Amino acid sequence: MLKVVTLHPINATGFSLSTSPHRNITTSKHHHIATSQHRHITTSQHHNIATSQHRNITTSKHPHIPTSPHPHITTSHITNIPTSQHRNITTNMKPDFEVGIIGAGFGGLIAALRLKHSGRQSFVIFERANEVGGTWRDNIYPGCGCDVHSHLYSIASEPNPNWSQLFSAQPEILAYLKNVVANNQLNPFIRYNTDVVDIRFLEDSNTWQLTDQHGKTTVVKMLILATGPLNRPNMPVFKGLENYKGKQFHSSAWDNSYDLSNKQVAIIGTGASAIQIIPNIAPIVGQLNVFQRTPAWVMPRRNRTIGSFQKALFNRIPIVQKTIREIIYWIRELFGLGFVGNHFINKLMEKSVLKQLEKEVQNPNTRAKLIPNYQIGCKRILVADDFYPTFNRPNVDLITDSIDHITENGICTKTARIIPPM
Ligand SMILES: Cc1cc2nc3c(=O)[nH]c(=O)nc-3n(C[C@H](O)[C@H](O)[C@H](O)COP(=O)(O)OP(=O)(O)OC[C@H]3O[C@@H](n4cnc5c(N)ncnc54)[C@H](O)[C@@H]3O)c2cc1C
Asked: Which helix (H) or strand (E) holds 383?
């Protein structure tokens, strides 16, 4: 029995096939089509499709292939399927590799390292982009960096004794991942620019068949999905956004070519990425309007540069860095008790944030707006050293009115406040 795992959103088009070999065939699921051009097409999902009759299928010839019996095919992926790559699809496929990994971010690379370190060589990594890194390749916004100590936010078997800071920035984390690939000769295992668009479990052979954007199929015995939790930006839906005439982009698609200097800028959201962006653009923009829906609990990060003596120590006596990693791990686990009912630790954390707020934000109204009305830990706790002080700047405004709609030049709140004022 064939199982289908859909990877891409689907848009179904019409139901009439209009090209010559398909004239007048209008069935929803193609049961038992036995025309001369389609020998061997049986049952609902096309077992044993003989590729020879499908040479050069192009969307122009099949603009109305109904996607409903083919949930994983979007017409945009049916272009010139080269027969050499489109093998007969059967349910008993000999695997090309023992393990297939989708994604070359932290997750996929760690899986590959474990396989390699366990002596396995029969694996392949599919990466839709032209380089590794996932999150740390795609997010390049100002201030982008990790909020977990780099000694811990790194791969246990690949310590980096040369981190420049306790909490490293995006470029350094990306470079670290590339070094991991180079140091462990992982590149030969990675298929770059390969987007897996279809996954089928072939029960007869207990194998997985993966199809990429070119229609090329690969069969693996075991499949590791390391496609990442956050690599598809969640675009908010605002009334009128389509009419906005100014420049707009999502933090995960930062446009470094756009100069923000002296501009009127609105940033919508005060989550993990926003609290890194806000302090880094506030000094260069003309006016920064920060739209906050829910305030976050923001604990101090206490980031600092790691000096040459410490780096030398980590290089010469690796156990020192390993021990620091363990200590950081257990301290975080201790704080974790606060999330599972230990009110003392919870209160301790809340108190430290409120003390920081009291110390760092001068305006009492702004301070009050930044205090969450929920228990710490209910949402991701954020860490930053420079977020709260940013609200003391004259060109930064914290807006907590909810957004009603977007206008051609700005934002209108539910209280009919137009920002920036006309
Ligand atoms: C800005 C930002 C900062 C963060 N900071 C931290 C932090 O400080 N600490 C922390 O613990 N976590 C942080 N996170 C969470 C972060 O996502 C994880 O820590 C980690 O990087 C996720 O790694 P991953 O390999 O699972 O996924 P990603 O890093 O998302 O990698 C997934 C990879 O899979 C590829 N891929 C996806 N689908 C396909 C497909 N169909 N075919 C082929 N390739 C595909 C993508 O191109 C990508 O390269 C942060 C996330 C973001 C966005």
From this structure: strand 382-383
Whole-prediction pTM: 0.81
Q: What angle do CA 5, 11, 13 make, to 5 degrees?
A: 120
Q: Which ligand 1 atom sits nearest the alpha carbon of residue 132?
A: 49
What is the distance in A from the centroid of ligand 1 to the CA of 145? 13
CA of 229 to the centre of ligand 1 (A): 6
Closest CA to ligand 1's atom 51? 135
Q: To test the ligand 1 pocket, which listed residue (113, 131, 135) has its Cβ within 8 A of the most ligand atoms?
A: 135
Task: Give the H or E element holding residue 117.
Answer: helix 106-117
Domain boundary among 225, 242, 274: 225
Average pLDDT over residues 350-371: 96
Tokens found for residue 61: 């010839």
CA of 14 to the centre of ligand 1 (A): 36
What does pLDDT average to over the chain?
Answer: 84
Region 387-404: mean pLDDT is 97
Tally Cβ neighbours within 10 Å of residue 275.
23
- At 91 the pLDDT is 53
**Has residue 202 been placed in a domain?**
yes
Contact 56, 84 (CB under 8 A): no
- Is the pLDDT at 95 greater than 80? The verdict is yes
Do residues 164 and 243 share a domain? no
